[in-house]
Amino acid sequence: MRSLRSILLTGGAGFIGSSLVRQLLKRSEVQCLIVLDSLTYAGNRANLIGPDRDPRFHFIEGDIRDGELVTRLLREFQCTGLMNLAAESHVDRSIERPGDFITTNIEGTATLLEAARLSQVSFLQCSTDEVYGPIDFPKYADESQKLKPSSPYSASKASADLLAQAAHKTYGQDIVIARCTNNYGPRQHPEKLVPKMIYHALRDEPLPIYGSGQQIRDWIHVEDCAQGLIATFEHGKSNRVYHLGAKFERTNLGIVRSILKELHKPESLIHPVEDRLGHDGRYALDPRLALLELKWRARIPFRTGFKEVVRELSQSLRPR
Ligand SMILES: NC(=O)c1ccc[n+]([C@@H]2O[C@H](COP(=O)([O-])OP(=O)(O)OC[C@H]3O[C@@H](n4cnc5c(N)ncnc54)[C@H](O)[C@@H]3O)[C@@H](O)[C@H]2O)c1
């Protein structure tokens, strides 16, 4: 079992990272939690208000591509683990301008792996179901599924996973990879599907939905995912991949309809727009290995979890 005593968490000011911070600080084993985040447009220091009052919490504004800084932090705080959640994460942006995706997601991960090697620190890579490309119905991808990413984003994430696996094979580094499905939850950047649709619906504006809206995703509450990341770090076997999914599949159109229903808005607001380039039709992960080896499974039912999240996000996205 890996120790949570002193953790360097990258990307902690983002959506999943800020939820992981909250879950980690609930654990008494955590004596020191250092968040390293460069606060890109997607990172928000306000996401850490509350946890930042905990004396075990430290925030460092900095870049994962800065190897000297990462090495210094791992040494100074005598870290036992490095969890990498820092990433450029928006597929649309990767299609328009892939550059930052290559440098942060690939070079940044390589830099972190090297620093982890020098300090002999265990490494968790947070990855995505998108690395497999589309999965035909009714199949589910298991962890041995071939990587076939479609977008610059997913290709950069697949590359990062391969670098982590190479670090294990070449240097014997202790690494573990968690591939997560679509998260919903509080503090998500408004460019992403759920908050974006809530934002427009609250203003009675058209809700732009790609193509037919029939793309299928597996939806998981961000708190469940954060718990899964901790379980993967603590209990995952070295060099293993684990799938953190809820096996709750919905089309994007279905998600948008649920939002409109919660907000008592008409479906006539739905406005189909030209489909995203290379848009994958379905992602579907088999999470059984995570249950078997990590004793983890998603627990928050979509029906109650999603309602609560729409309510919470509506508070922050309401017109002022
Ligand atoms: N959101 C999802 O549904 C989802 C699903 C599967 C996997 N993931 C993965 O989970 C991780 C977190 O995703 P998220 O949705 O929270 O992303 P996010 O965009 O909300 O947060 C990313 C964070 O990383 C920081 N960051 C970006 N570049 C950096 C750099 N060079 N140095 C330091 N910090 C940097 C940003 O400031 C931000 O705080 C990513 O690796 C993503 O690929 C997300």
Question: Can you give a write-up of this model?
Answer:
The protein is globular. The mean pLDDT is 98. The chain has helices at residues 15-25, 67-76, 91-96, 99-119, 152-171, 193-202, 222-235, 252-262, 288-294, 302-317; strands spanning 6-10, 32-37, 57-61, 81-84, 122-128, 175-180, 182-184, 207-210, 216-221, 241-244, 249-251, 270-273. It has ten helices and twelve strands. The protein has a seven-stranded parallel β-sheet with strand order 3-2-1-4-5-6-10, with helices on both faces. A three-stranded mixed β-sheet has the order 7-9-11. Strands 8-12 form a two-stranded parallel ribbon. The chain has one domain: NAD(P)-binding Rossmann-like Domain (Rossmann fold). The protein is α/β, with parallel strands linked by helices. Helix 6 (193-202) crosses helix 10 (302-317).
Secondary-structure blueprint of this entry?
Layout: E1 6-10, H1 15-25, E2 32-37, E3 57-61, H2 67-76, E4 81-84, H3 91-96, H4 99-119, E5 122-128, H5 152-171, E6 175-180, E7 182-184, H6 193-202, E8 207-210, E9 216-221, H7 222-235, E10 241-244, E11 249-251, H8 252-262, E12 270-273, H9 288-294, H10 302-317
Parallel strand pairs: 1-2, 1-4, 2-3, 4-5, 5-6, 6-10, 7-9, 8-12
Antiparallel strand pairs: 9-11
Cofactors and ligands: nicotinamide-adenine-dinucleotide
Order of helices and strands: EHEEHEHHEHEEHEEHEEHEHH
Name the CATH superfamily assignment: NAD(P)-binding Rossmann-like Domain
What CATH calls the topology is Rossmann fold
